[in-house]
Write a structure and sequence with these properties.
alpha+beta; Structural Genomics Hypothetical 15.5 Kd Protein In mrcA-pckA Intergenic Region, Chain A; Pseudouridine synthase; four-stranded antiparallel β-sheet
């Protein structure tokens, strides 16, 4: 079967994906689960059952291995989100940059990025629909218009939102090539012997708890760089930079090396939360090359109020 004509026409349900170096050697179904974030692993599996994935003009198998530069064509299912998930809501946004193509938003702690079970309103997507109307990319379907990457509900900080499908594709490719610099700050338990370090451990779904991620053999590559900014009372103030953007990456990596993020409800165990609700983690800086203008966009934001309060208390020995 030849490669489908017009596969860049997403309204026809077809998408062209390019395999980057981060996915070299991975199973194709695992790679597609990462490249198509609006689909679950089981939904990706159904694509293969429905003969909806092609490589090199032939139907692809889920267990085939990815090669760098490989082109994959996928016939995407129609979005099946309920109508209320697409409702525009007049929710104020802290916009740090905006032009005709994209936005950088400082997401508050406690805001869910897109509608999901139990969160059908009050999300960043509901706010974006009010602010931008129909002027949002639809590559990730009706549930996640404009969303290129995500932050956890209780992780505040800088996020990209995109208005144009071609710009979305270029930024998604830049993320895959690790060309978008994402920097975080966190307060974690314990002290470090070294002032800098790298955690390079593969991540996947925790086999004993589907709500969690874990370091697993054969998981997706995940690399987190960290630097100790300050030693605190029973804790450390860190700056972290992601090479990859796996679900809960910083939280899982820090917990695995014995320094869970303070207040983390999933990975913090029985450690003291110091009265904090949710993890002491925020995305403090976003740096990337604008895909249209070529301009360097480098934006930073301040810590949320509860983070600043905790930092002050731990500095004071509280």
């Amino acid at each position: 079967m030849p490669e489908p004509a017009g596969a860049m026409n997403l309204t026809a349900g077809l998408s062209r994906l390019q395999i980057g170096p981060a996915y070299r050697g991975q199973r194709l179904d695992v790679a597609l689960t990462s490249l198509l974030p609006r689909l679950t692993r089981s939904q990706v599996g159904k694509l293969f059952q429905q003969d909806a994935v092609w490589v090199g003009g032939k139907l692809a198998r889920p267990g085939s291995k990815c090669a760098e530069g490989m082109t994959v064509w996928v016939k995407l299912p129609e979005p099946t989100s309920p109508a209320e998930d697409q409702r525009a809501e007049n929710i104020p946004l802290d916009i740090r940059y905006e032009d005709d193509y994209l936005m950088v938003i400082n997401k508050p702690k406690g805001m869910v990025v897109h509608p999901a079970a139990g969160h059908h309103s009050g999300t960043l997507v509901n706010a974006l629909l009010f602010h931008c109307g129909s002027q949002l990319s639809d590559i990730n379907g009706a549930i996640r218009p404009g969303i290129v990457h995500r932050l956890d509900k209780d992780t505040a900080g800088l996020m990209l939102a995109v208005k144009n499908n071609e710009v979305h594709r270029q930024l998604a490719a830049a993320l895959q090539r690790r060309e978008i610099k994402r920097t975080y700050k966190a307060i974690v338990h314990g002290h470090f012997a070294e002032r800098q370090g790298v955690v390079d451990l593969p991540l996947g779904r925790d086999p004993s708890n589907r709500q969690r991620q874990a370091v697993v053999s054969g998981g997706r590559p995940a690399v987190t760089h960290f630097e100790v900014l300050e030693d605190l009372t029973a804790a450390s103030y860190l700056q972290l930079q992601l090479e990859t953007g796996r679900t809960h990456q910083i939280r899982v990596h820090m917990s695995y090396i014995g320094h869970p993020v303070v207040g983390d409800p999933l990975y913090g165990g029985r450690r003291d939360t110091f009265g904090l609700q949710g993890q002491a983690l925020f995305a403090c800086r976003l740096c990337f090359t604008h895909p249209v203008s070529g301009k360097l966009i480098d934006i930073s934001c301040e810590a949320p109020a509860d983070f600043r309060d905790l930092l002050a208390r731990l500095r004071a020995g509280g």
